[in-house]
Specification:
7 helices, Four Helix Bundle (Hemerythrin (Met), subunit A), binds fe (ii) ion, mainly alpha
Length: about 210
C-alpha cells in the first residue's frame, strides 16, 4: 500500500484542511445565532416587570430555543465530537481535546436551562413570568459567553492542532464522517436564522439593500 502519512501531512499543513474550513464556516453561522441571542438578552432586560414580551421578541426567542434543542447539538457539536477521535487515533493527545467535551456539556446545560425557562414563560403563570424571563436571559447570556469563547479557542487552537496529526486521507475521512451528521441540507435552518435576525431588526450578512 502506497501510503506516506508524513508526506501527506507535510502537504496538508501547507493549506487549511477541509474539515477546518468546514467548522469555521459553521462558526460563522454560530456567531449569527449568538448575536441574535445577545440581542434577545438585551431586549429582555429592558422589559419592565409585568410587561408582555413583544411579539417579534417572542418569535425570536422561540426560534432560538428551537435551534438550541434541534440543530446546534445534533449538528455542530455532534460533528466536532465525531471528528476529534480521528485526530486522537492519529496521535493527538486525548487530554488536548478534553476541554472541548467539557465545554459542550456546559453549553448543553445552559441550553437546557434556557429551555426550562422558556417552558415557564409559556406556562401562563403571571407570578412566575418575570422570574422566568430573568432566568431565560441569564441562561442565554451564559450560553453566548461560553460558546463565543469556545468557538474562538477551537478556531485558534483545536483545529490547527488536529490538523498537525492528519493526512489528506484523514481529512477526507473527517469530511466523510461529519457530512453524514445532521441534516443533509442546512439551508432551511439558515432561513430560520434569517427570520430570527429579522424579528430582532438585525440585518443578515450579505443581504441586499432594502429599496
Ligand atoms: Fe465545539
Ligand atoms: Fe465549534
Amino acid at each position: 500500500m502506497d501510503t506516506n502519512p508524513r508526506a501527506d501531512r507535510a502537504q496538508i499543513t501547507e493549506k487549511v484542511p477541509s474539515f477546518e474550513r468546514f467548522f469555521e464556516q459553521e462558526h460563522v453561522l454560530t456567531d449569527r445565532i449568538l448575536d441574535c441571542a445577545t440581542a434577545i438578552v438585551e431586549r429582555l432586560r429592558t422589559l419592565r416587570e409585568g410587561e408582555q414580551i413583544p411579539r417579534d421578541l417572542f418569535t425570536a426567542m422561540a426560534i432560538l430555543v428551537y435551534l438550541n434543542e434541534n440543530f446546534a447539538d445534533q449538528t455542530h457539536l455532534a460533528q466536532e465530537e465525531a471528528a476529534i477521535p480521528i485526530a486522537i487515533a492519529r496521535g493527538m493527545p486525548r487530554q488536548d481535546a478534553e476541554w472541548v467535551y467539557r465545554d459542550h456539556e456546559q453549553g448543553r446545560a445552559y441550553a437546557k436551562a434556557a429551555g426550562v425557562a422558556w417552558d415557564r414563560i409559556n406556562a401562563d403563570d403571571e407570578t412566575d413570568l418575570p422570574h422566568a424571563i430573568d432566568d431565560f436571559a441569564r441562561c442565554t447570556e451564559g450560553l453566548v459567553k461560553m460558546f463565543a469563547y469556545h468557538a474562538e479557542r477551537e478556531d485558534n487552537y483545536l483545529f490547527p492542532e488536529m490538523g498537525r496529526y492528519l493526512s489528506a486521507a484523514d481529512d477526507d475521512l473527517i469530511m466523510h464522517v461529519v457530512t453524514q451528521i445532521g441534516p443533509p441540507d442546512v439551508s432551511p435552518y439558515i432561513a430560520l436564522v434569517v427570520d430570527m435576525e429579522q424579528a430582532l431588526g438585525i440585518r443578515p450578512p450579505d443581504s441586499a439593500p432594502s429599496h
